[in-house]
Amino acid sequence: MTATTPTTPLRAGVVGLGWAGQQHMDAYASLPGVELVAIAGMEDGPRAELGEKYGVTRRYSDWRDLVADGDLDVVSVAVPTFLHAPITVGALEAGIHVLSEKPIARTAAEAQTMVDAAHRSGRVLEVAFNHRRRGDIEALKAAIDAGQIGRPYHARAIWLRRAGIPALGSWFTNREMAGGGPLIDIGVHVLDYALHLFGEPQVTAVSAVTHSELGARGRGGAKSDKQHVGSAYEVEDLASLLLRLEGGGSIVLETSWAAYRPAGDEFGITLYGTEGGADLRVVDYAPAGELTIFTGEGEEVEDIAVTADAGRGHLAVVETFLEHVADEPNWSHWDGSLALDRARVIDAAYESARLGAEVRLTPATAGLDADSTTTTETQEA
Ligand SMILES: NC(=O)c1ccc[n+]([C@@H]2O[C@H](COP(=O)([O-])OP(=O)(O)OC[C@H]3O[C@@H](n4cnc5c(N)ncnc54)[C@H](O)[C@@H]3O)[C@@H](O)[C@H]2O)c1
Question: What is the whole-number distance in angstroms between the Cα of residue 110 and the centre of ligand 1?
């Protein structure tokens, strides 16, 4: 990486030409102080079209050629999950700051190699959790921070689809490539925004069940142009978790790609607090969901409908990443450890489902600092 002055825009690359990669391309193309100069992806048509759209002439079919390109400052990684770790580690070792798509990796062990590479290289590693940057989640967080519901002690958080397996037979349903099903794919967003709304408590134990009933029988697939890798359906299509939090709080998290329920896609959270409650429901990707705060007592009960804007999603994620890249004295603060923490919870959930037992998460040090070495141990349910 070469030195950058305020008059020299950062040079950005994006690996991955799908929906996710295009969110990052849009952001780099529209934000000040950065220039999208290289893209990579295996599909010839989209690579040419996106190259034309964004005026990018450095176009590669393999991520290694993009990383070896030589003068990139930042790269976004928006590829199948099994490639997050090798690309991230390769880019960090080349001195490039990395913004990876969620989930950080297939497992916490793999995620740890990415965090270690961030420490070794001294570069920034961040993971795109764009749901917490939605306007409705930000409005709910502001209400909680203003004390409107008191101390939240329990939540039910969901992301449920009737028939939304990203594509039967694609990398998403291949265990080796994806690491899991809806829990690691969309449940990770729910886990992130729920813990964010609670103020980042440590998760102390996870009890989970997973089911694979529909995808395995060829049901529940979404219409998609995703490339087929020809695998059988190898992951869950529904997961349900009970998370115990430090301080006594709890979260029930339920997520499905496919289940016989009202058609479409729904995510949100219902929160109970000591002074009030909140309910956020987002149906079929509405830009802003229905958010209600419940307060009062006895005759004075009040339900407040909160109007939220759409928020900026990926644009905000990329903007914050670039702000952190501009803040060199604090690069070591942005090492991917929050996303690693999410991966530990998801590992524990899959382990709990496999064992039929609660799995405890034991922090060696409290909090989400870079040196945290949380370990897992099982406990009979
Ligand atoms: N944050 C979000 O809201 C969100 C939404 C969708 C997907 N995602 C995440 O983004 C990632 C990609 O998902 P998607 O739906 O865009 O996938 P996709 O299958 O549509 O696209 C994957 C891209 O990766 C490219 N790729 C694969 N191997 C490569 C290689 N060796 N070198 C270069 N490019 C390679 C493919 O050519 C393709 O362009 C996943 O991690 C997914 O979890 C995040």
Answer: 18
- As beta bridge partners, residue 276 has 295
Domain 132-313+346-362 belongs in CATH node 3.40.430.10: no
Q: How far is the CA of 265 from the centre of ligand 1 (A)?
A: 21
Domain residue spans in the chain?
Answer: 10-129, 132-313+346-362
CATH of the domain spanning 10-129, picked from 3.65.10.10, 3.40.50.150, 3.30.565.10, 3.40.50.720? 3.40.50.720
Q: Which atom of ligand 1 is nearest to the CA of 22?
A: 16
Distance in angstroms (rounded) separating the CA atoms of residues 276 and 109: 39
Taking alpha carbons only, the member of 56, 55, 97, 99 closest to residue 77 is 99
Q: Which of 69, 79, 185 to mutate to test the pocket of ligand 1 (most atoms within 8 A of CB)?
A: 79
Which tens digit of pLDDT belongs to each residue from 261-300? 999 999 999 999 999 999 999 999 999 999 999 998 888 8
Does ligand 1 come within 6 angstroms of the Cβ of 78?
A: yes
**Integer Cα distance of 78 and 80 in angstroms:** 7
Q: Are the C-beta atoms of 59 and 13 separated by less than 8 Å? A: no
| Cα distances (angstroms) measured from residue 128 to each of 133, 327, 372 | 10, 18, 21
Half-sphere exposure of residue 161: CA atoms within 13 angstroms, side-chain side: 22
- Label residue 136 by pLDDT band (50, 70, 90): very high
Q: How many residues does the chain have?
A: 381
- At 270 the pLDDT is 98
**Any atom of ligand 1 within 6 Å of the Cβ of 229:** no
Distance of CA 174 to the CA centre of its chain: 19
Residue 377: in which H helix or E strand, if any?
Answer: strand 375-379
Instruction: Give the whole-angstrom CA distance, residue 2 versus residue 316.
Output: 25
Token output for 361: 């998460």
Q: Is 37 in the pocket of ligand 1 (CB under 6 A)?
A: no
**Which residue has a Cα nearest atom 8 of ligand 1?**
20
